Amino acid sequence: MRARYAHVPKLRWETMDVRALGFPSGSFDVVLEKGTLDALLAGERDPWTVSSEGVHTMDQVLSEMVEYKRATLRDEDAPETPIEGGASPDALEVGFRKGTRHLLGSHTRLELVLTGVSLLLAALLLGCLVALGVQYHRDPSHSTCLTEACIRVAGKILDSLDRGVRPCEDFYQFSCGEWIRRNPLPDGRSRWNTFNSLWDQNQAILKHLLENATFNSSSEAERKTQRFYLSCLRVERIEELGAQPLRDLIDKIGGWNITGPWDQDNFMEVLKAVAGTYRATPFFTVYVSADSKSSNSNVIQVDQSGLFLPSRDYYLNKTANEKVLTAYLDYMEELGVLLGGQPASTREQMQQVLELEIQLANITVPQDQRRDEEKIYHKMSIAELQVLAPSMDWLEFLSFLLSPLELSDTEPVVVYGMDYLQQVSELINSTEPSVLNNYLIWNLVQKTTSSLDRRFESAQEKLLETLYGTKKSCTPRWQTCISNTDDALGFALGSLFVKATFDRQSKEIAEGMISEIRTAFEEALGQLVWMDEKTRQAAKEKADAIYDMIGFPDFILEPKELDDIYDGYDVSEDSFFQNMLNLYNFSAKVMADQLRKPPSRDQWSMTPQTVNAYYLPTKNEIVFPAGILQAPFYARNHPKALNFGGIGVVMGHELTHAFDDQGREYDKEGNLRPWWQNESLAAFRNHTACMEEQYSQYQVNGERLNGRQTLGENIADNGGLKAAYNAYKAWLRKHGEEQQLPAVGLTNHQLFFVGFAQVWCSVRTPESSHEGLVTDPHSPARFRVLGTLSNSRDFLRHFGCPVGSPMNPGQLCEVW
Where are the transmembrane segments (predicted)? Predict the structure, then answer.
């Protein structure tokens, strides 16, 4: 599954229609000082550097226009701003009206003076509005959009642009520089971007729904959702219980050498409880999913796992990560002591656990070496797995994990990484039983401490500060609880979200856009000179067969079907810790239930409220949850240039994943098999090598990107942008040119690329940036913009970037 998504020649302003600046013809005297206008028209001023004398004045007029329309047209749509904190979706309108009533109270002398000033300002504003209206009507083509939605989105774009930077020098800084200046990292956050902002907004909506005093649902699953959320909010009860729930659980499993007596002959029983009943992942992870080579059936799958820190690099590069390793050991010790261990003994034993994790890191295969799925896929029987990794009884373990199913030693298992499992088996055999026990229980502790009292949360915050650079956590409890509820009952929560927010017409429009982007992608396939006809035809058939899912799975709006999904999961309002334990046990049963059933298209890997999207190769499907079908990615009343540059690029990105270095290995039915002709495969690898080398040259804080690790996402970014832009051009050919936004000074073609770039405006701590470089298959936001646009012939043409400029280094890396 894949988720989440240059220099130009100087523009020849002297030959451009002035409406390309975004203003109606002849309206410049309203927004520009005459000297500035004369300088622009004479070519003596660079339009990208005009600020306070030029566009800034227009910003003020636009801002006043928006406020004027809000004050007089109360029935129009509410402002498209994130809902803060616990405010209800109606809070903005209610707050505005209260303020208005207050201003119309008793009249003191000061108030009378202020009233007079206000009337004078209103008269001036009205004059500006009339002037704009006159200029608008003087423009016979009405090429500028002056609706409130256009004014509002123009203001948002202008608020982000850094006009002191030329687009061909650094398009990311040009598009996002002012946004970065205006958006310092919020307390407790290691990064902040559009995705975070939208998720915060979605969380506020969900809070409002779950805390509504009139909450009443016919669905038991939805009622479970509210009970779960409220149990998480019961902080006093959680503090009262303290560490006791986890202490009791550890005793039930057989004890922990760090906190007391333990069963020394109990390795298999502890492993079954920790990895089976409570779904932790020591040493390896086991799950049930579609068989990559037989995608119509599910199969048991085993893969490498077992590290707490985000990447093996943190364990192996000890010099660079000394602070992180020390903070991690401090965290391990603190949690052990909170659970009853003695400080000195706990630290000594946790040091042994850390050394075991370092050994695991040594045999863990780096992600950039696991990109060829054909090479790492190994199907065998449980009996053959037993020979490969004999340190444990696999039939006993898997039978417990998938109870009540009956398994035999002929049951097929897909293993990803035979060498790893063989070596981990040897490591288990050579490790002291006490260290194995400490490691297994430590995995259980990691899994469950987020359900305990504030002391455990404080201990984690100290580690996160070192690991990600977060200075302090100010996350409200309700927000943490919404995230936990999303993890536990995400589709029941999604039912509430969709019924409250999702516009069915948006689904229809999104489906139409996907169709247009698919057509554009297939047309580009026909123009590839490096692909032979047989492979091209198979690729076209695969693109045709891609199944798109928009908004949400239908079952969430059917109460009985939704209830059936969560049938067997017991939720109490009294114990958050027990609710989490029940969830782990329930998820194990769901996994067992899937093994003998075929994969279902209704089984989404993301909840409807998620701000993301994905492509799943075994189903050959692309999924766009309702959570991402919002501004700035998409809005019905935004220019098509912005919608295609936003959600359109996301759609193209996910579609292109079907043809990246991993997705291309799967055929149209979702089966992993070779379907490319050798000459086309060699050409594909040659083109992707260019892109791998390109991105490997980029640096963040002196640290290079891993072009191999990020290759699939970079291919998708580049292909997605091209497909979306070609689809936008096709839309224009069919519907004609659309109106331009006022004041932004961009043609609609340029607006497409600015809209794309501003989706990725982001700020991040140095520590978080480092973590992203070693773990994330995506390039950092800055290079998702710069790398992609420097490969785009359309971008370079519309911004006129000459060869040799930073945005046009001369060599373009193109795959699709």
Answer: 112-136
